Amino acid sequence: MPAFVVIILTMLSGQTLAAWNNPYPASDEQANTLYSFFRERPKTLDPARSYSSNEYEIIAQIYEPPFQYHYLKRPYTLIPLTATAVPKPLYYDKRGRQLSADAAVADIAHSVYEIRIRPGIYYQPHPCFAQDDNGHFAYHDLKPAQLRQWRRIADFPLTGTRELVAADYVYQIKRLAHPKLHSPILSLMSEYIVGLGDYARELQAAQRQLADQAFLDLTRYSLAGVEQVDRYTYRVKIRGKYPQFRYWMAMPFFAPMPPEADRFFSQAGMADQNLTLDWYPVGTGPYMLTVNNPNLRMILERNPKFHDERYPSEGKKGDVDKGLLADAGQRLPFIDKAIYSLEKENIPRWNKFLQGYSDRSDVLAESFDQTIRMTTGGDTELTPEMRAKGIRLLTSVAPSTYYLGFNMLDPVVGGYSERSRKLRQAISIAIDYEQYILIFRNGRGIAAQGPLPPGIFGYRAGCKGRNTYVYDCVDGQLRRKPIEVAQRLLTEADYPNGRDNATGKPLLLYFDTPAAGPEAKADFDWMRKQFQKLNIQLVGRATDYNRFQKKMREGNAQIFRWGWNADYPDPENFLFLLYGPNKKVGEDGENASNYESPEFDRLFEQMKNMDNGPARARIIDHMLDIAQRDAPWVWGLHPKRFILHNPWVYNLEPNNLANNTLKYIRVDPLLRAERREQWNKPVLWPVGLFGLVLAISAVPVVVTYMRKEGRVER
Amino acid sequence: MIAYIVRRILYAIPILIGVNLLTFTLFFFVNTPDDVARLQLGVKRVTPEAIEKWKIGHGYDKPLLYNADATGAAQLTDTIFFKHSVRLFLFDFGRADDGRDISQDIGERMWPSLAIALPTLLIGVLVNITFAMLLAFFRGMYLDTWGVVLCVILMSISTLFYIIGGQYLVGKLLRLVPISGYDTSWHAIKFVILPVIIGAVYGIGAGTRLYRTFFLEEINKDYVRTGRAKGLSEFRVLFQHVLKNAMIPILTGVVAVIPLLFIGSLIMESFFGIPGLGSYTIDAIRHQDFGIVRGMVFLGAVLYVIGYLLTDISYTLVDPRVRLN
Questions:
Q1: Are A573 and A591 in contact (CB under 8 A)?
Q2: Where are chain A's structural domains?
């Protein structure tokens, strides 16, 4: 059968003998294409709703907010994308008088961001812009019966384009308040953008007056805090001072949306064909989504209308040596097409990377030993097999934090008494996160000293940034305090040798987790051993994800794991996780440990609206010290990302905040075709051997048959 | 026969209502509408207002099964169950929580499932019949004994082993076919070969043993003895007479599973990246998308009913002694 399979395969694929296992058409062998995967289909590609990394991987290449992060510079630097500059906000007091740039936060009633976009930027060709000979939109008044002939956007015969204007940015900000879109940032932005909350209520009332599927025309409703100044300029009015707003404007939430697209997709019958803005983005970016079959593959192709953008000419130290500036000044994007195929399982995904059918890959736990080895100095490097294939490794610490939280409302581990504080500090010392990183993350992470990860203002590396309650500084290196210190703290907390002095009973703590399975068990066993160092008994309370969330919301968990990925590179985005009014219980905020320190909160309010500088750094140091002393979290770790890429991929540089990085990547299709052929020659001799074994196995069958038939005939 | 079919269809209605009710109860026993909303809205910055709005927008703001605030029939009709489930009987599956039209997705994803399941079934039946006939031919001999042992071994191995082993051997080491993936039209063939082979090999153990039993049952009947007494060779006895009669249970068994082929294979599709209905169901369960879960369970139940109806009909076609009444 295998031989038959091989013949059929060759006949039907029309490929050469070198590429039977090629999952892509042979005609694309030397195309300027990037091959990648997606694990699960995106929930939405609508920039007003999308808020997860797998969705951003697609839409950030299509939609262009006014600003972006510099691809190479660190610390992360905001630069214009479609805007002419990153504007400095203008401050006004209650009476509308303009204040100086260094005005006191308390005096600032409003901040105004005036953004001017560059003329001459055009949208991708799309049927929503197509016009007939009379200058009317060709597809804005379609009947459902007409629509049935077009199942995909590519099926519409006419397309058009138009210039990007400031009104499109205004329209998108209005969409954040659309009652049917459920934008995740509406609530947050309503606190800042003047009038957005009222606007959402107005739209909700207007929607109620309309039939269920009727189009709610946002251009007919004005939003007080957002104003179009001229064709290329718009203003956003913010309550008080909120410097982080400029980072939000680098996210797809603030990308332009042409009203024509909204009207086009809102026609009756469109959604029945799965033709919606959730699945078919319309943008000005370097790529456009030409194939969107979220059950199989998504294809981004070069936008023929893309404006002039050049590869960066400056970066950080060492970028020249790494060849990252070799393409400086070249027009972007480099790649014609990016194919994202659905691949749910790790093993096939990894094998395809090794075969050259995927250009880049994460390092998987299953293949870690095959890929990476630890050097004697504790660093990581590729194994000789990987190096022989020319595969390269890129590492970076993600702006994320994974921590172990104490519920501060819990009567045993929570509270602000000296007793509970010392108990938490003792546990913080006992849990050896350095060991955890080695065992469970193959060294992919760094032990955290506080909530701020590297790359965020306020983070201090080495002994300067140490958590003095958990670490010592020995010879310039961080060293976890000995367990005896933890035991002494526990005794001072009136739990000598892990027993409650008042009752004489052993201290019993509960670890709440939604994780299950063998890996989670190993993880819990390790955690239990850490607590055993202090003779504290740890009991696991595993539950499903929904119940776990409910426990957290109701404050019924005791010790738990949690994490946070940065939205933007500002300490406010991490320190707000410990801000009292943002607590989980009662407020449904992101402060999962329900930590509430008046001093910390006061400093947070002072710090959050300050510009980066020595004064802000001092406040952050103070805040960190308060949090480290109170120890509402065992600070856990900041994960390290390992990315592998094949030798034909250039200009790859980890940028954990920028999502629109596809345009910078260059591939060498000829080298890829050559390596694929080299790595994927079919091995045929086992097929022949298998056939031979089958033939030999048939001999006793035939002999026995002959004998048996002979016997019957006799 | 028509009266019988109509009667069976009518019997199916309470079964389908029961399946629907059970699916609904089980789903909302472990998930509240709030949980569903939270999962759809993501994990960051989800406010109670956003959850409330999402529930209203998706019709999850009503009581589950009984609306005490309503009057008359609305007590039953103004509920999540009624609003979300009644349309299923018109095969209107509605929309998934992410807004996609479920009927269209089912229509698209049915074909990849069939592309794997149908050849697997046909090749599997052919191979199993051949092996079972051989074992029956050599019954009581060492070939039969070792054949049955081999079947038991094949049955004892997990599907995952076949899948991962097959991908490793054929896709990675021998590089004969793509490790995983799928494509449309004729380009799909190179992706289908490996899952079909694995599916057929996986079924050999159980299928061969079952069919062997059918053949052995027939072999001891009088007409076989008569055939042998007339001097027919053992080969002719088996392939001309025994096979024909043993095909009755084999065919009826195959007919019963034909409708279920549309549903696809959960694990196979996931590992091979086949965008079929099996992976569709698994994804929906993982994302707690009640619309899809409900639709797929309902579709499965309908196909099951159809499968057994077809089985009964096929009995009358292959065995004239059977009458439907």
A1: no
A2: 3-20+688-708, 45-272, 400-641
